[in-house]
Design brief:
It is a single chain. The protein is 86% helix and 0% strand. It has helices at 2-48, 60-84, 86-113, 118-131, 137-145, 149-180. The chain is elongated.
Length: 181
Protein backbone atom coordinates (compact mmCIF):
# COMPACT_ATOMS: atom_id res chain seq x y z
CA UNK A 1 0.00 0.00 0.00
CA UNK A 2 2.79 2.45 0.85
CA UNK A 3 4.67 1.56 -2.38
CA UNK A 4 2.05 3.20 -4.57
CA UNK A 5 1.87 6.19 -2.24
CA UNK A 6 5.66 6.52 -2.30
CA UNK A 7 5.67 6.28 -6.10
CA UNK A 8 2.97 8.93 -6.39
CA UNK A 9 4.85 11.31 -4.09
CA UNK A 10 8.10 10.88 -6.04
CA UNK A 11 6.34 11.38 -9.36
CA UNK A 12 4.52 14.45 -8.09
CA UNK A 13 7.78 16.02 -6.86
CA UNK A 14 9.47 15.25 -10.18
CA UNK A 15 6.59 16.84 -12.11
CA UNK A 16 6.85 20.00 -10.04
CA UNK A 17 10.61 19.99 -10.59
CA UNK A 18 10.00 19.74 -14.37
CA UNK A 19 7.57 22.66 -14.07
CA UNK A 20 10.22 24.85 -12.40
CA UNK A 21 12.94 23.80 -14.87
CA UNK A 22 10.82 24.51 -17.95
CA UNK A 23 9.59 27.83 -16.56
CA UNK A 24 13.21 28.83 -16.00
CA UNK A 25 14.11 27.83 -19.58
CA UNK A 26 11.17 29.85 -20.87
CA UNK A 27 12.10 33.01 -18.94
CA UNK A 28 15.79 32.85 -19.86
CA UNK A 29 15.04 32.15 -23.53
CA UNK A 30 12.66 35.10 -23.69
CA UNK A 31 15.26 37.35 -22.02
CA UNK A 32 17.81 36.38 -24.66
CA UNK A 33 15.37 37.21 -27.47
CA UNK A 34 14.47 40.52 -25.80
CA UNK A 35 18.14 41.42 -25.37
CA UNK A 36 19.11 40.69 -28.98
CA UNK A 37 15.95 42.36 -30.27
CA UNK A 38 16.80 45.49 -28.29
CA UNK A 39 20.36 45.56 -29.61
CA UNK A 40 19.07 45.03 -33.17
CA UNK A 41 16.57 47.84 -32.66
CA UNK A 42 19.26 50.15 -31.33
CA UNK A 43 21.57 49.43 -34.26
CA UNK A 44 18.68 50.07 -36.66
CA UNK A 45 17.85 53.37 -34.93
CA UNK A 46 21.50 54.37 -35.07
CA UNK A 47 21.53 53.67 -38.81
CA UNK A 48 18.33 55.68 -39.42
CA UNK A 49 19.76 58.61 -37.44
CA UNK A 50 22.77 58.47 -39.74
CA UNK A 51 25.03 57.31 -36.97
CA UNK A 52 28.63 57.80 -38.06
CA UNK A 53 30.71 54.72 -37.43
CA UNK A 54 34.36 55.23 -36.72
CA UNK A 55 36.10 53.32 -39.52
CA UNK A 56 38.77 52.16 -37.07
CA UNK A 57 36.13 50.46 -34.91
CA UNK A 58 33.51 49.28 -37.42
CA UNK A 59 33.14 49.53 -41.13
CA UNK A 60 29.64 50.09 -42.50
CA UNK A 61 29.65 46.52 -43.82
CA UNK A 62 30.63 45.18 -40.39
CA UNK A 63 27.77 47.18 -38.85
CA UNK A 64 25.32 45.66 -41.34
CA UNK A 65 26.78 42.20 -40.73
CA UNK A 66 26.13 42.66 -37.00
CA UNK A 67 22.52 43.52 -37.75
CA UNK A 68 22.10 40.46 -39.96
CA UNK A 69 23.72 38.26 -37.30
CA UNK A 70 21.43 39.64 -34.61
CA UNK A 71 18.38 39.02 -36.80
CA UNK A 72 19.57 35.46 -37.38
CA UNK A 73 20.09 34.88 -33.63
CA UNK A 74 16.60 36.23 -32.92
CA UNK A 75 15.12 33.97 -35.60
CA UNK A 76 16.90 30.90 -34.22
CA UNK A 77 15.96 31.56 -30.58
CA UNK A 78 12.37 32.40 -31.50
CA UNK A 79 12.13 29.12 -33.40
CA UNK A 80 13.63 27.17 -30.50
CA UNK A 81 11.25 28.76 -28.00
CA UNK A 82 8.25 28.09 -30.23
CA UNK A 83 9.26 24.51 -30.92
CA UNK A 84 10.20 23.73 -27.31
CA UNK A 85 6.92 25.19 -26.04
CA UNK A 86 8.40 25.59 -22.56
CA UNK A 87 5.49 27.50 -21.00
CA UNK A 88 2.79 25.05 -22.12
CA UNK A 89 4.84 22.00 -21.16
CA UNK A 90 5.63 23.54 -17.76
CA UNK A 91 1.95 24.14 -17.12
CA UNK A 92 1.08 20.55 -18.04
CA UNK A 93 3.70 19.21 -15.62
CA UNK A 94 2.29 21.47 -12.92
CA UNK A 95 -1.25 20.27 -13.61
CA UNK A 96 -0.09 16.64 -13.48
CA UNK A 97 1.61 17.24 -10.12
CA UNK A 98 -1.57 18.83 -8.76
CA UNK A 99 -3.71 15.90 -9.91
CA UNK A 100 -1.35 13.37 -8.35
CA UNK A 101 -1.28 15.34 -5.09
CA UNK A 102 -5.09 15.38 -5.10
CA UNK A 103 -5.12 11.62 -5.55
CA UNK A 104 -2.62 11.23 -2.69
CA UNK A 105 -4.81 13.31 -0.36
CA UNK A 106 -7.93 11.35 -1.34
CA UNK A 107 -6.10 8.06 -0.82
CA UNK A 108 -4.82 9.17 2.61
CA UNK A 109 -8.31 10.24 3.69
CA UNK A 110 -9.76 6.94 2.51
CA UNK A 111 -6.99 5.06 4.34
CA UNK A 112 -7.80 6.81 7.60
CA UNK A 113 -11.50 5.95 7.28
CA UNK A 114 -10.79 2.40 6.11
CA UNK A 115 -12.37 2.88 2.66
CA UNK A 116 -9.20 2.64 0.57
CA UNK A 117 -9.21 0.55 -2.61
CA UNK A 118 -5.62 0.14 -3.83
CA UNK A 119 -6.74 -1.13 -7.24
CA UNK A 120 -8.87 1.96 -7.81
CA UNK A 121 -6.04 4.24 -6.66
CA UNK A 122 -3.59 2.49 -8.97
CA UNK A 123 -6.05 2.77 -11.88
CA UNK A 124 -6.58 6.50 -11.31
CA UNK A 125 -2.83 7.06 -10.94
CA UNK A 126 -2.14 5.31 -14.23
CA UNK A 127 -4.90 7.33 -15.95
CA UNK A 128 -3.23 10.54 -14.78
CA UNK A 129 0.18 9.38 -16.00
CA UNK A 130 -1.22 8.45 -19.45
CA UNK A 131 -2.59 11.97 -19.98
CA UNK A 132 0.78 13.67 -19.54
CA UNK A 133 4.35 13.44 -20.84
CA UNK A 134 6.94 11.88 -18.60
CA UNK A 135 9.45 14.08 -16.82
CA UNK A 136 13.19 13.94 -17.53
CA UNK A 137 15.68 12.10 -15.36
CA UNK A 138 17.13 15.42 -14.19
CA UNK A 139 13.71 16.32 -12.76
CA UNK A 140 13.70 13.11 -10.74
CA UNK A 141 17.22 13.81 -9.47
CA UNK A 142 16.30 17.39 -8.55
CA UNK A 143 13.16 16.23 -6.77
CA UNK A 144 15.19 13.75 -4.69
CA UNK A 145 17.45 16.57 -3.54
CA UNK A 146 14.42 18.51 -2.39
CA UNK A 147 13.87 22.20 -2.83
CA UNK A 148 14.64 24.12 0.33
CA UNK A 149 13.85 27.79 0.76
CA UNK A 150 17.58 28.53 0.37
CA UNK A 151 17.58 26.93 -3.07
CA UNK A 152 14.43 28.82 -4.10
CA UNK A 153 16.05 32.08 -2.92
CA UNK A 154 19.27 31.22 -4.79
CA UNK A 155 17.31 30.50 -8.00
CA UNK A 156 15.42 33.79 -7.71
CA UNK A 157 18.72 35.58 -7.06
CA UNK A 158 20.21 33.99 -10.22
CA UNK A 159 17.26 35.20 -12.31
CA UNK A 160 17.50 38.68 -10.77
CA UNK A 161 21.24 38.78 -11.48
CA UNK A 162 20.55 37.73 -15.07
CA UNK A 163 17.98 40.52 -15.46
CA UNK A 164 20.36 43.10 -13.96
CA UNK A 165 23.17 42.05 -16.29
CA UNK A 166 20.83 42.32 -19.28
CA UNK A 167 19.73 45.78 -18.16
CA UNK A 168 23.35 46.87 -17.70
CA UNK A 169 24.29 45.62 -21.17
CA UNK A 170 21.37 47.47 -22.75
CA UNK A 171 22.18 50.60 -20.72
CA UNK A 172 25.85 50.43 -21.75
CA UNK A 173 24.88 49.97 -25.41
CA UNK A 174 22.52 52.95 -25.27
CA UNK A 175 25.12 55.10 -23.54
CA UNK A 176 27.75 54.12 -26.12
CA UNK A 177 25.43 54.94 -29.01
CA UNK A 178 24.41 58.33 -27.58
CA UNK A 179 28.05 59.25 -26.90
CA UNK A 180 29.03 58.50 -30.49
CA UNK A 181 26.15 60.33 -32.17
Amino acid sequence: MSDILDSMRKTSKARFSAHRRLNSHNIKSLMIVIFYSTVLLLTSIAEVLDFKVDQAVFSVNTFKLIQISLALVILIFSSIITYANYAVRAEKFHQCGLEINGLIRTHELNLSSGKSNINLVNLKYNEILKRYDNHSYIDYVNSKKGLSLDKIHHNLKDNATYLILMALLISYTLKSLTNLV
